[in-house]
Write a structure and sequence with these properties.
It is built from 19 helices and seven strands. It is α/β, with parallel strands linked by helices. It has a domain at 99-314: Beta Polymerase, domain 2 (2-Layer Sandwich). β6 and β7 (223-227) form a beta hairpin. It starts with a helix and ends with a helix. The model is unreliable at 1-20 (pLDDT under 50).
Length: 407
């Protein structure tokens, strides 16, 4: 399949009728995963009934990694409901293991935040670290694989160089299209994601101005830093969760429920406005509807109804499809697809302009001096069969190590 064939596929899909969201398959939780979510976030008899249904329908020794991530929170909730079961001892052990690993991660994060502060780089913590500090407030409740920190686009080069000086190196990736973040690893295998933007879908120069303006100041290990306010945090969790991934990412639903149940400061009007500005109405609408329908989330019906009536472009629908479903493309075509969907779709540009933009994008990501060098660099390093194979094996082994460590 050539690039022109990919563009033709997108064009055909844009003409197809749009389907209503179905909460099964692709990026959505399965029935069993939905029961686990209910047992994790509900209270009282409803939680106990969901737990009993889930426990009878799964093999605890063969849980998917996404379900395994929720076991510490499940343990804490079942304990609060007075549940006694032989598995509670196993869940308690997973909770303690999570507590220990998160302590190590947060100690590393404190050292990095201190280093950033010394050179005058403003930071904003994202994802799991922010959720733990502001909403879960208990190290053992939410497993984390890495730490995510946002810096301004102006400070990104300085932050990148500082990390390298501190012994952190960029992690090789099979997909190198993430303009919003770069993953780093130190000699001990700890991971750190440096973000220049909050959302991968919104990488314009001013895309994060509202997030920074609305950020809340927090203290961490006596260090001052920032986090997203509850409304923007909910947006980030929902949009980031509405994506297909090899590891089922449905813990976004538990995170969203924790935010809503822990804060009375959700500005629903701002939430919709921010989504509209970023062309993110579709993922926000469907995730909020899922939370309302499946988990009885305190989402105002008027908020969902307002998004139902908002016009969305065909290109937004195509982008949403590709984000929420697995792809069959491989190699260079897969890289181009992610670039096209994330950064070019809906901008009204022709294929030639998109290709030139893609080459410029690779030039910046690979650090080559001239545009004409990109194809040669790609053939020699990133697009060779040997490199693709080695990177795929590396990513597979890394995923297996994560799953093993979580068990």
């Amino acid at each position: 399949m050539h690039i022109s064939g990919f563009a033709s596929t997108v064009s055909k899909q844009m003409k197809q009728p749009l389907n209503k969201v179905k909460y099964q398959g692709n990026c959505w939780p399965t029935r069993e995963q939905g029961l686990l979510l209910q047992a994790t976030v509900w209270q009282g008899q409803k939680a106990i009934e969901a737990w009993e249904k889930w426990e009878c329908s799964v093999d605890i020794d063969k849980l998917d990694p996404g379900s395994h991530r929720l076991l510490p929170q499940l343990y804490r909730n079942l304990r609060a409901q007075g549940v006694e079961h032989p598995l509670m001892g196993t869940f308690k052990g997973i909770y303690r293991q999570t507590w220990f690993k998160n302590q190590l991660l947060f100690n590393n994060m404190a050292a990095l935040l201190s280093a950033f502060r010394k050179v005058g780089i403003k930071t904003l913590i994202l994802k799991g670290a922010a959720l733990l500090l502001l909403y879960y407030k208990e190290y053992g409740l939410r497993p984390m694989e890495d730490v995510d920190v946002l810096v301004t686009t102006e400070d990104t080069p300085a932050a990148f160089n500082l990390l390298k000086e501190l012994g952190w190196t960029p992690i090789p990736k099979q997909l190198i299209t993430d303009r919003h973040a770069v993953a780093f690893e130190d000699g001990a295998g700890h991971e750190f994601d440096l973000h220049s933007h909050v959302l991968s879908e919104c990488c314009q120069e001013d895309a994060d101005d509202d997030f920074w303006d609305g950020a809340v100041s927090i203290k961490f290990h006596n260090l001052s830093t920032y986090a997203l306010n509850p409304t923007d945090q909910l947006l980030h969790v929902c949009v980031h969760g509405a994506k297909w991934n090899f590891t089922p990412p449905f813990r976004w639903a538990a995170d969203a429920m924790m935010i809503m149940n822990s804060s009375n400061e959700i500005d629903w009007e701002r939430l919709v406005t921010q989504a509209e500005k970023g062309h993110l109405i579709l993922p926000l609408r469907d995730t909020l509807k899922y939370l309302k329908d499946i988990l009885d989330a305190p989402v105002p019906l008027t908020t969902i109804q307002s998004m139902q009536n908002m016009p969305t472009s065909r290109s937004e629908h195509v982008r949403y499809r590709y984000k929420t479903r697995p792809t069959k493309l491989k190699g260079p075509l897969l890289i181009f697809q992610f670039y096209y969907v994330d950064h070019s779709l809906g901008e009204g540009t022709g294929l030639l302009k998109i290709l030139i933009g893609f080459l410029r994008f690779l030039k910046d990501r690979w650090g080559v001096d001239h545009l004409w060098q990109v194809p040669f660099h790609g053939v020699m390093k990133s697009m060779s069969v040997r490199r693709i194979w080695k990177t795929a094996v590396w990513n597979s082994n890394r995923l297996l190590r994560r799953v093993s460590s979580q068990r």
